[in-house]
Amino acid sequence: MYWAMVRLGTPALWHLLRMYVGHCAAQRRTARKLWRAVRDAPTAAEAPLLRPITEHLHEFEHAALGLQPGASPTTQGERITVVHILGSGEVLYSPLPGLRALLRTAPALAQHRHVVMDTPHHPAAYLGPMEFASRAFQALRPLLEAPERGPLLLVGLSRGAVAAVELAFRAAERTGQPTAALCLSAPTRGDIEWPASVRDIGLLEAGADAALRLPLPGFLRRFRRARFRHAYARVTAGVYNELSLDNEEMLALLARHIRETSPERTCLRALREYALLGRVSDAELRQGFSDFAARAASEDLVRLTFCWGTQDVWMPHARCRQRVEESLNRHPGADARVTLHSLPGWNHGIARQPEQDFGPVAALMTSACNWLQQPSQKCEGSGSDDG
Amino acid sequence: MTDDEHAAEDLDSLEGIRVAFARRFEGYDRGYHALGEQVMKRYYEADGQAKPASAMTFRNFLQGKTSLRDPTGLLLYFECLGADAPQMQRIRGTLQQALDRRIAAPAKQPALAAFRESDLEQMPYSRALAECEAATHFEAHTSTPIAAVAPLHYLLGPGCKRDAGPDRNNWGLLQHMDAVQRFLEDLELKLQDAFAAAAPSNAAERRWLAAAAVREAGDAYAAYLLRFPAYAELMLSRRRHILHGPMPEKERQVAIGSVKRSFRTLYRVFERFAQEVVLDGDRKQKARTPDGEIAMEIVGERLMSAVQGFYMTTVLGSTGTGGLFAAMQQSRREFADEPLKGPAGWSGDHQALVDTNDSVQRRARQMVEGNARVRYGEVKRLFETQDDSFFQHCYAVWHQDFGQVLVRQTGTLLAGELHNRGQLSDREVVAFYKFFLTSKDGLRLHSARHQPSLFDLSTSD
């Protein structure tokens, strides 16, 4: 086992070192800010932001959304359950800054129930995209079976967007109820050149896994925990800076998450998430999207909305959109249930940057909610629509 | 009449009986009325006999003039004309069948109306559906292989509803596919858990787990076909529905999607095997190229066909005539007692399948021939009771003939197909075969198996 540690740990340390060296000054500044926020824990107990529903599902508290406690927005139509599915490297609190901005822009959306689905920790979820989808569905199932859930809107970012597509169809088939999905920055191609930050993080997975399996005495375990916490903060800061998500609000939430959770578990999960991004093949994604287009051609109960940011530094948005268009073209009728949008000015983290104009995102989400509340209404602007 | 002439008499049809006894009556030295008196005397002396018909009725029967409301009233006449016990048994059976046909005739006529083909073709489709429902209702009672009325019923079940409830008798293909998908997904989650528990650095254990998963998937699918034969019949039977007709497009696409997902779940097992065993960790991600994906799909299809082939040759092939099973196992049966270098071919379970079928066929013949009044339910139960031990023997034959070579076949087929598609070089494929077929570690993988099994059929009930 120690030999395995040396064999795996040596390249892992090399990748970590290369990543640290490769980080630009801005990323290092973000890392320092995040680390200070982690260290400087507030003295008073912090108000809870989430209420657990199941192990993987948590509902945002009213206060966390910036709403007054006890105030209930006027209910128009049936109350929808909006499930936020996280992207790679995100944590439970990640959607909050964007969600607060969204609700300021479209207050009517506050009437709905906002739930966030935690990314699975189980290593089996990261064997491949299919395994991830099946674990995600297991996590969602209790909500599907809950009698009070109402119509379902899945909002997924990045890898969460791809999962949202699959989950929407499965939910509709399982329940016979209309289901909508808002797919933000869906990576529809596996042949894109992921940035070095993503690749390097993924390469750390094997070494981290081996390090965690090592039986260590007490003080070395503490040392290991501290190193994992530091490494996690460092890699997360680098990614968030790259995606322009390193505002004060987000860093404070990240710091809170790091303080509240097991650093080893959280770090290893993040490494596995990035490693999975690098493992997904283009052939697999192509098959998956072809399959979804075939289902969309005949499934009345599902509506999908895709959007990509034109300033996405991680993915070529035009090529990703083109993949979906090609899939839809092969299945006549599918485009009646799927709309595609390009959002100017947005980076990869759509609906995560509170300083951006949330008008278009709010409009798309409102449109999806309107459809859910009146399922006989066709989705407006079928085909493609920009902005 | 001589004994040979008696033996040549056709006593299995009403017309045959009529001809046989007209000839016997020619040798009778008295007239109809005298015969009738003799018969009445026998009737009063005996207990439990059917009341005889009159002598004139007997005469009219012999002359072909009567339609016979109750033919069993003629039994004593035949006894008086010298029919022995075996002949009386056959005559009794024939006359009772004639009576039963007469009783069923009023109900049969409307049902048969649907099968006068020209009439069916002239009917509106909706009426043809209604006419044929009588036939499928009958089939449901007799437990014959399923033929739904129309493609709609084949897809959604007799109730034509997506939610058909828990009773599998009300299921169509869609509901069966849902159940199979749940079963396979549950198994796949357990296989994923087992695989993910191994450290990424422990290549040997990951290979073993990938191999054991292949075996487990094959065993699970075979067990499912045995446990729920209705699913197999829906999927594998050519005679799926009586009438040609349309399927609702949405449900058809749902069925297609469901089958695709079920098989993708199964194929995922082969993908892990390809990555861990054949491609040694697949650092270059050859399994994930279009050629790699196609290779795995082809091999997955071959191996799933092995399970379906098992169902055809062993499960179906060892019932009825039993001919297919006998034909497929000729050498193995012939050389069962020879000292073999390879694994044993013929086993007690193989013999049990043959013996069970022979026994049931023999007992069914005896039941029907020995008692013309035997209830259909008793005959049916005879065949149903066969099923319990029969399926156990079938599963044992699966393990011996198919299951224990499944991993070996998977490895050799995958390597060959990946090489064929340019994902493995000549050197790499030779190195793999050497490892997989001759090395100790490679041979260990052939017998990799989860003990106890991870799949659970009870939750599918």
Q: Could you characterize what this model shows?
A:
The complex is a heterodimer of chains A (387) and B (461). Chain A is α/β, with parallel strands linked by helices. The longest helix of chain A is centred in the middle third of the chain and has 25 residues, at 218-242. The model of chain A is unreliable at 377-387 (pLDDT under 50). In chain A, helix 3 (96-105) links the parallel strand 3 (81-85) and strand 4. Chain A is globular, with a radius of gyration of 21 Å. Chain A is built from 13 helices and nine strands. Chain B has 21 helices and no strands. The chains are: A alpha/beta (387), B mainly alpha (461). Chain A binds chain B through residues 4, 7-8, 122-124, 126-128, 130-131, 134-135, 138, 169, 173, 176, 190, 205-206, 209-210, 213, 279-281, 283-284, 287, 291, 294-295, 297-300, and chain B through 162-163, 185, 188-189, 192-193, 195-197, 199-202, 249-250, 252-254, 256-257, 260, 264-265, 268, 271-272, 285, 288-290, 292-293.
Number of helices of chain B: 21
Distance between termini of chain A? 54 Å
Assembly state: heterodimer
Let me know the average pLDDT of chain B.
Answer: 84
What is the chain-wise order of helices and strands of chain A? HHEEEHEHEHEHHHHHHEHEHE
Structural class of chain B: mainly alpha
- The share of residues in helices of chain A is 40-55%
Mean pLDDT of chain A: 85
Count of beta strands of chain A: 9
- Protein structure class of chain A: alpha/beta
Largest sheet of chain B: none
Radius of gyration of chain B: 31 Å
